[in-house]
Design goal:
four-stranded mixed sheet, alpha/beta, 36 helices, binds iron/sulfur cluster, six-stranded parallel sheet
Amino acid sequence: MASRDFQQRLQKALQNPSLRGALERFADSYVVSREQVFAGRDFQALRERIAAIKADAAGRYEELAREFARQVTERGGKVFFASSAAAARDYILKVAQEHRVTEIVKSKSFATEEIHLNEHLEGHGIRCFETDLAEWILQLMPGERPSHMVMPAIHLPKEEVARVFSNYLGEPVEPDIKNMVRIARRELRERFLRAGLGISGANIAVAETGTVIICTNEGNGRLATTVPPVHIAVFGYEKLVPRMMDVVPILEALPRSGTAQPITSYVTMITGPVPVERDGREGPKEFHVVLLDNGRLKMAADPVFKEALQCIRCAACTNVCPVFQLVSGQVYGFIYSGGIGSILTAFFNSLADAADPQSLCIGCRRCAEVCPAHVNIPDLVLRLRERVVKEQGLPLSYRAALRGVVAHPGRMYTLVKAASRLQGPLSRGQPFIRRLPFFDNFTRGRSLPALAREPLRDRARRLAPPPERPRLRAAFYSGCVIDFMYPEIGEAIFALLREAGAEIVFPAGQGCCGAPASYAGDPDTTLHLARLNIASLEGAGADVVVTACPTCAVALKYDYPRLLGRDEVWSRRAQSLAAKVKDFTELVGELGPLPRLQGEAEAAVKVTYHDSCHYKRHLHLDQVAREVLREQAGVELVEMAESERCCGFGGSYTLKYPEISRALLERKLRRIQETGAKVVATDCPGCLIQLRGGLDQKGSPIRVMHTAEVLYRAGFKAERVE
Ligand code: SF4
Ligand code: SF4
């Protein structure tokens, strides 16, 4: 259960249309600009290089820190190794007090936000002035939180900023951006000249030279690090790289990924104390580095989470995250936001602090596609969820559902059968439940599917006899949605594969693939189901195991071998099953034109295709599906804008965060309607639940079909897909 604070922040953000509008506008233009700015570059090679450099550094932080410190000290600077936030704060306060500093200017420092430096110094009578424009605006608005890691005030319209400036100056300020920038420059220039100490962060720190590198667009970083007589650079161990040449790929990727710029306006490299002129005399200024641990060394020693230290804080992952675009960085509650932010929060703050933020991830994997440091954010979020659950336990409702029912196929079957008989008053004979008494939030904006009266596993007992000399023997793994909600998809698949000359069987002992348990942070239940399904599918003696659900395919192909990797016997069995698993549409593509489908192009209708997240980003079959639809079903495929954007299903996510799920669905439905298509095809039964339910509540005649159904209707039955 999410904390009350978190829920309040979430509701506030979801009810703020200007916040959402600003983030969505930025995100839309970002996607296009990012593509342009990376055009002609080998993004995969670039990110592999960055990942290798950063992973190597994470493996020897202490050695690099020693070398970095030696270089800085030799040049006359001082390095303080701060094990904790408190140690870092105390050191900075000591330096400030030694110099009788009363005013400090700051630029570009996440680390100082992480350690709550401003509050600490102000408690000792020292005022800190943020000099990054957006940070300064937020500082003038007590209680306001940053909404984005790179553009913290992106949510504020210019009229709001003008109001803030007017209050600050005590005179009216017009909402004119150029004029407001001029005002900020004038006000801040004064601060730079008066400050006794400048504090910065760092984007990169080079061990072999002791160089601190700062990338900025406003030039304030240079002023903060050069004008005051003392400079303290505060940053974490993860900024360390071994050599100067390692800086090149990071500088190539960072601005391109963050703001879609080829390079930031200023790249400042500071190697030792810079010369400074005071009272007509020139001399070196005092230069300190606070190298912050605060959980980083523990993270670097963690075999799973050390990967997150590869992050170069570009915020590309949040720029493309559909959930972040709805809720903004303000909801996460800590300086680091988005999926990566929740992972960092777990180590830099505490696991308990990361519990709510991590739960916002719907697992769409969009972030992993664009991360220039090759961090597999969605998988790390799942591993984090497991640790949260281990520490806090599974909520009672999840435990009852997952361990009491889902883990036992027999019990699940009995319960679902009983529910399908009792659902009459809710479904009223329709394929949908349009209103759930007492839980109407779950059916607001989207109808739920009614349960099938006869699950696929029962229907499968009446399978037609196999062809005389089958081309192959296939075992069908249905997954829960096809089995209990949409058995007709399974029947279409049986019919199509038989037409293609395959023998198809339905192994009766199969159960849920375990993905719902994995997404809830309960790998033990997944492990139990993995063994059960492996045994059941092995028993079928099939050449190929066919699924028509990408989530199930990912579980069978990737999750089972990972979960069972330490058990020699089960690991072998899991790998042998994984090698046989094929998605239905992929198999159809490989089998070639189905006999009765040839020459059926006249059945063409306008179909649009929705990419399910796992199908596209995990199985990489999005183009295969399009080819099969065009060439085998003979349909006219019209692309929708943002076809790859998450529909908002995410299994139990729809129940946990119905407002977010609904908002994602709304956008998807708009995109579908814009195409003018009569049919939406997709390869994911979960997306079918979401899209069918959404279109049903809109009273839309657009039909949502699994690719197998489109194929079946377009050709096998020689019916028009209308
Ligand atoms: S995880 Fe990747 S995309 Fe996200 S901020 Fe870090 S480097 Fe950028
Ligand atoms: S997987 Fe999707 S929802 Fe989760 S952090 Fe990445 S982009 Fe956001």
